[in-house]
Structure formats: structure tokens, C-alpha cells
Amino acid sequence: MSTALYVDAGIQASKYCNVGTFAALVFDYCITLEAESQWVWHRKWTFVRFIFTVSRYLPFFGIGMTFVGELQMSKHWLIAKFAHG
């Protein structure tokens, strides 16, 4: 098996892990949204609430940036593949 196939398989596995992580994140968000609404949203802002909010919503930003990076890499890979035949 050539090195290119190993690299391609690794990239594909990374993409599957990214999608799986995103699905788990959305699932966790959905099942805890009611409790978050009850215990967090209607409280005054404190340091603890700030840290909770950042830790709760920053992963969505991180996964979004990962998806954008993957799309950019895929676009450049396709252009290079078709440009060289």
C-alpha cells in the first residue's frame, strides 16, 4: 500500500471523527438545553456563569473553524488534482 493511500485514509478518518464529535456536541447541547435555561439563563452574570458560557459555546466555534479548514483543504486538493490531470 502506498504512502498516499495511508495519508488519504488518515484524512478521511479525521473527517469522520470531526463529524462524530460535532454530532455528540449537538446531542449534548440538545439534552441539556432545558436545564441550562432553568439554571443559567435567568441568573445574573458572574464569573462562574461566564466560564460556563464560554466552555459551553466555544466548542461550536472550534468545530466550525475545523469544518472551514477542511473545506479549504479539500478545495485546494481538488484544484491541484484536476490541474495536474
Write a compact overview of the structure shown.
The protein has helices spanning about 5-40, 45-85. It is mostly helical and about 80 residues long. Helix 1 runs antiparallel to helix 2 (about 45-85).
Model description:
- The protein has 85 residues and is mainly α.
- It has one domain (3-83).
- The protein has 2 helices and no strands.
- The protein has helices at 3-41, 47-83.
- Helix 1 (3-41) runs antiparallel to helix 2 (47-83).
- It is elongated.
- It starts with a helix and ends with a helix.
- The mean pLDDT is 82.
- Residues 16-61 form the DUF6533 domain.
- It comes from Suillus luteus UH-Slu-Lm8-n1.
Question: Low-confidence runs (pLDDT<50, min 5 residues)?
Answer: none
Q: Which structural class do the helices and strands define? A: mainly alpha
Order of helices and strands: HH
- For the residues shown, what is the average pLDDT? 82
The count of strands amounts to 0
Query: Which descriptor suits the 3D outline?
Result: elongated
Number of helices: 2
Helix content range of the residues, please? over 70%
Gyration radius, to the nearest Å? 19 Å
Share of residues in strands: under 5%
Largest beta-sheet characterization: none
Could you tell me how far the N terminus lies from the C terminus, measured between alpha carbons in angstroms? 22 Å
Number of structural domains? 1
Domain DUF6533: 16-61
Pfam families: DUF6533
Organism: Suillus luteus UH-Slu-Lm8-n1
Protein name: DUF6533 domain-containing protein
